[in-house]
Design goal:
alpha/beta, 2 domains, 10 strands
Length: about 280
């Protein structure tokens, strides 16, 4: 109803006089919706509940109880181990991403309370170089897990990434093993790890820590997989099932335990922690 009133109020106005950024077009239902309503609904469409991509800071605010968040390893920034140049030097690209996002790298880690439960939380920042996993992302996540193992706290990692960071080559790929080893030690101490998959979670991230959760939760219609559909189809020379890289398809065949909307996510994660952390 609010949306209808706003549309009627703007009928007949010169579109040039409508402030920029007031409306946003939903890529799922193709309807033009009031941006403020999208933001109030945790960046979801009020018409079809399409989940827009969400900033790491906003996701932390949506999950962590007010006043309890403490960020860890906030100042860690990438070096240039390979002297990589692809039109621009790697340090210049990192500096541009830092200026654009206000972040040091593509993950934020810290601790806080989730509905009263103490947890460690890592959240990918897709707007920083596609959430790619380089040495900083791997190191911060490893430190997060190790700190939680020592404190006997659950770990929750929210992934949104295109995969490994090519500018760091093999060093980036090594982070797959490092994060997985830290989670194996966490599991040996019988501590809980919940992996949350959002759009997109792909390649080296999905092939490592993102797929290792004791419980794996995904947002609706998230793109999840190892590589693109075209590459797979050209490799195996077969037609692929429709939607085979969506969270719904993977849930149907058992790779994902639960699909939760963004509005439900905090309550669902709190429920899982309350059931399993002390079990």
């Amino acid at each position: 109803m609010v949306l209808d009133r706003l549309r009627r109020a703007n009928t007949g106005r010169d579109p040039k006089k409508i402030p920029d950024g007031l409306w946003v077009k939903c890529p799922s239902c193709a309807k033009t919706v009031f941006k403020r309503l999208v933001e109030e609904r945790l960046d979801t469409c009020p018409e079809c509940n399409h989940h827009f991509r969400m900033s790491a800071r906003k996701r932390i605010a949506a999950l962590i109880d007010d006043g309890t968040w403490q960020e860890w390893d906030a100042d860690m920034s990438s070096a240039d181990p390979l002297g990589f140049v692809d039109g621009k030097g790697y340090p210049e690209r990192i500096a541009q991403q830092q200026a654009k996002t206000g972040l040091k790298d593509a993950v934020i880690c810290g601790g806080g309370k989730l509905a009263g439960h103490s947890i460690g939380l890592g959240v990918s920042a897709f707007d920083f170089n596609g959430g790619s996993m380089g040495s900083v992302v791997g190191e911060k996540l490893t430190r997060l897990v190790e700190r939680c193992t020592a404190a006997r706290m659950p770990v929750i990692i929210v992934s949104a990434s295109g995969g490994a960071r090519m500018q760091e080559g093999l060093i980036s790929l090594m982070q797959m093993a490092k994060t997985s080893a830290a989670l194996a030690r966490h599991a040996e101490k019988r501590q809980l790890f919940i992996s949350v998959l959002t759009d997109p979670t792909m390649a080296g991230v999905m092939a490592s820590y993102a797929s290792l959760g004791d419980v794996i939760v995904a947002e609706p219609k998230a793109m999840i997989g190892f590589t693109g559909a075209r590459v797979i189809q050209e490799t195996i020379k077969q037609e692929l099932p429709e939607g085979f890289q969506t969270s719904e398809f993977l849930h149907k065949y058992g790779q994902i335990d639960l699909i939760a909307t963004r509005q439900e996510m905090k309550a669902e994660l709190a429920r899982i922690v309350s059931y399993l952390h002390h079990a």
